[in-house]
Specification:
6-stranded mixed sheet; single chain
């Protein structure tokens, strides 16, 4: 009769053998899966030249869209002019401007009287078709304006708008052809002048003295 030790050793050996067989089977099963995964990875094609160009075009337009609030908050006419072609048309509410420069000049004049303004842009969607493109984005603005005819009050304005833009690339440069501003929401609150002076911290409009110009090499 075999000793308990021998039986135990035999049991251990059988367990090891079973584990080896199972491991070999698992490895055999995994090998095709690994091969398939590698094949699938190789099957993912690199972006085509057309796809890469579309991404570059979208990035160029996106940067122009973001340049708009920067130029507006700094009241920088040159920056604002760089966004649109000279013959670009602009519609703001019911007002139509015959050229991009006419709109820019109106925009700066309207904001000169404001004590503070801050603009943000989000939700950018762009569709490119060769040298043409369209985009939609959401613009929000917080504005602080002295109330006309009443020195005791300020108007605090919240604006939510969408810009519906048409773009074209001319001589290798993207710029606006047309912009329509859709006003989605507007709210005005009246704040006593004393509260503004006491509780509001408003950054100065430093124009080209703003530290961002130095950060971007004077641009």
């Amino acid at each position: 009769m075999k000793s308990l030790q021998q039986l135990a050793q035999r049991s251990i050996a059988m367990s090891i053998a079973a584990a080896c067989i199972a491991g070999a089977g698992l490895a055999h099963a995994q090998a095709p899966a690994a091969t398939a995964a590698a094949t699938a990875t190789k099957a993912v094609a690199a972006p085509s030249a057309a796809q890469m160009q579309e991404l570059l075009d979208k990035q160029a337009i996106t940067e122009l869209i973001y340049t708009y609030p920067r130029g507006l908050d700094r009241l920088d006419r040159d920056i604002l002019l760089s966004i649109g072609h000279p013959d670009a048309k602009m519609k703001f509410g019911n007002t139509v401007f015959p050229s991009w420069s006419a709109y820019v000049d109106w925009l700066i004049k309207a904001h000169n009287d404001m004590v503070g303004n801050n603009h943000r842009i989000t939700n950018i969607l762009i569709k490119v078709d060769g040298d043409k493109a369209v985009s939609e984005c959401t613009g929000t603005a917080t504005l602080l304006v002295p109330k006309e005819g009443d020195a005791s009050l300020y108007e605090e304005r919240w604006m939510h708008s969408r810009y519906l833009d048409t773009w074209s690339r001319r001589d290798g440069k993207w710029a606006l052809d047309d912009r329509k501003t859709v006003i989605d929401y507007r709210r005005i609150s009246y704040v006593p002048t004393a509260d503004v002076k006491k509780n509001y911290q408003i950054g100065g409009r430093t124009g080209r003295d703003d530290p961002s110009y130095k950060l971007f090499g004077g641009q």
